[in-house]
Specification:
about 0% strand; elongated
Length: about 90
């Protein structure tokens, strides 16, 4: 490995974070010449982005259900604890 290949810039780190496969292929010398393959890659990236967005909202929804469940348990506890004397 050449010394130049051992170092990478901040923009390469950003590219690696965005798409590690693209970064590796670029480092190995592959270039995007085929527009058909490129459009296929863009569609795959779009699907991954949509799934990531859906996952983000599912995680938020799960936290909402968790909070609602905890509130329900707290209310049920207080009702069972203090309604015995009524």
């Amino acid at each position: 490995m050449k010394r130049k290949d051992a170092l990478f810039s901040a923009s390469e780190i950003g590219q690696f974070n965005y798409c590690s496969i693209s970064w590796i292929l670029k480092r190995k010398g592959y270039r995007s010449g085929n527009s058909k393959k490129k459009s296929h890659g863009m569609r795959i990236h779009d699907k991954i982005g949509q799934r990531t967005h859906q996952l983000f909202w599912l995680i938020r929804l799960s936290y909402l259900f968790l909070i609602c469940g905890l509130i329900f348990l707290i209310i049920a506890f207080f009702i069972s604890r203090y309604s015995m004397g009524w």
